[in-house]
Amino acid sequence: MAILVTRSSMPSFEEYCAEIRPLWESCWLTNNGEKVQTLQRMLCERMGAKQVSLFANGHFALEAILRSMKLTGEVITTPFTFASTTHAIVRVGLTPVFCDIEPNHYTMDVQKIEALITEKTTAILPVHVYGHLCDVDGIEAIAKKHNLKVIYDAAHAFDVYRGEESSATFGDASMYSFHATKVFQTIEGGAVASDSLPLHEALALERNFGIRDPEDVPAVGGNAKMNEFQAAMGICNLRHLSDEIGKRKEIYECYLTHLQDVKGIVLPTLQAGVTYNYAYLPVLFGNKRDLVFDYLEKHAIHARKYFYPLITDYECYQEMAGLSDTPVAKKIASEVLTLPLYADLTKEDVSQICERIIEALSI
Ligand SMILES: *Cc1c(COP(=O)(O)O)cnc(C)c1O
Predict the structure, then answer these.
(1) Which of 110, 195, 261, 292 has a CA-to-CA distance to 2 between 20 and 30 Å?
(2) pLDDT tens for residues 124-175?
C-alpha cells in the first residue's frame, strides 16, 4: 500500500457522531454556534492567548489580519513558505519584500531584515517553518525600533512552546491553520491568536460581512466563518492531540536513528528549549534530492518537495519588480524533502522508507 506524506488524525466515528448529535436538535450549523464557542474557549486555554478568532481556513485568517490592521505599502516576509503566506500579502494589495532565511532552521534571517526596511514598510510576516520558532526576540527588537507590526504565520507551529511560552504569544498576532494535513485539524479551518481585543473585534467583522448586528454594518467584510461541524472535529481532535504528538515524536526519533549515520544528507536539528509538535521531517539531500524523490515515488512512498519551488520562482510572481535574491532559501528549496510523518505510521514503515532512501543514495 502506498505511503503518503501525511494522513489526517481523526477521532473515532462514534466520538465525532456524539459530538455533532446536538446539531440535529438545535439545527444551528454556523454563525458562531455552540461548538465554535466551545472550541474557541478550549483553544484560548491551550494556546495561552487572550483572544482566539476562528476562521473557515488559515489563509483567510491571514488575509483578515492584514486587512484588520489596515496595513499599507511593504511587508517583509520569507520566500521559503507555502503559497498562502505571500498570496495573502498580495491579495490584500500589499507588496511582499523577501528576506532570506538562516541555514539551520530555515526561518527568516534576522541579520538581513533591517537592510530591507524602507519608509513604506509597515509589517514583518515571518513563518515558524516546520515548527521551528523564528528569532522572536530579534524580530521584536527590530519591529519596536522601526514601529512595525509583526504577524506570524504559525500554520506549522500549533502546540509548539519556547519553555512555557506558547507560539501564540509572540508578535502582534499569529495565524494558525487547522487544515486536514496539519497536526491539529478541523477539516478546513484556521485561527488568529492575539492579545488585542480591538483586533479580535475587527477580525469578527472581516469574517462575517462586516456585520456587527443586523442594523449595524461598519466594515466591508467577507465571509470566512468556521462552521459547527468543523468545530466539532476540532473539539474531538483536541482531546487526543497530546497522544498524537507523542506518537509523532516516536516516529520522528525512529527516522533519526535509522538515518543518523547516512552520509551526504542533513537531518533536522531541534532548537534548544523548544517543545515541538513533530509536524514535519525535513531532510536535505544535496543534489540527490530529485533522485531520492523519484526513487521513493517508484516504490509508492510519497515524500514532498516542501517547499519547492520558492515563492519567488512562481510563475505568478515573475512580473513582480525588485525580487530580492535569497541564496540560502534557494539552496534549501533545491535540496529538501519532507518525509512521510503521521501518528499512525508504523516503525516498520519507517524502516522500509529509510532502506529505500539508502538504496537511492547509492545509485
Ligand atoms: C497550511 C498553510 C497555510 C494555509 O492554511 P489553510 O488552512 O490551508 O488555508 C498558510 N501558511 C502555511 C505555512 C501553511 O503551511
Answers:
(1) 261
(2) 999 999 999 999 999 999 999 999 999 999 999 999 999 999 999 999 999 9
Measuring from each residue's beta carbon to the nearest atom of ligand 1, which residues come in under 6 Å? 57-59, 81-82, 84-85, 127, 153, 155-156, 177, 179, 190
Q: What is the DSSP string of 242-274?
A: HHHHHHHHHHHHHHHHHHTT-TT-B---PPTTE
Burial class (CB in 10 A: 0-12, 13-18, 19+), 12: exposed
Nearest atom in ligand 1 to the alpha carbon of residue 62 is 10
Report whether pLDDT(363) > 90. no
User: How buried is 205 (Cβ within 10 angstroms: 0-12 exposed, 13-18 middle, 19+ buried)?
Assistant: buried
Ligand 1 atom closest to 156 (CA): 15
Report if pTM > 0.90: yes
CA distance 336 to 346: 23
Residue 9: partners with Cβ closer than 8 Å, 6 or more residues away: 183, 185, 237, 240, 244, 342, 343, 344
Rounded Cα gap, residues 111 and 22, in angstroms = 53
For the chain, how many residues are written?
A: 363
Q: How far apart are CA 256 and CA 248, in angstroms?
A: 12
For ligand 1, atom 10, the nearest C-alpha belongs to: 84
Write the CA distances from 131 to 105, 192, 344, integer angstroms.
Answer: 9, 17, 20
Instruction: Return the percentage of the chain with pLDDT > 70, whole number.
Output: 100
β-partners of residue 52 are 193
Mutate to test the pocket of ligand 1, among 91, 107, 153, 307 (most ligand atoms within 8 A of CB): 153
DSSP class of residue 8 equals -
State the distance from the centre of ligand 1 to the C-alpha of 362, rounded, in angstroms.
35
Asked if residue 324 has pLDDT above 90, the reply is: no
Assign 322 a pLDDT band (cuts: 50, 70, 90).
confident
State how far the Cα of 95 lies from the Cα of 185, in Å rounded to an integer.
Answer: 30
Q: What is the rounded CA–CA span in Å between residue 221 and residue 53?
A: 15
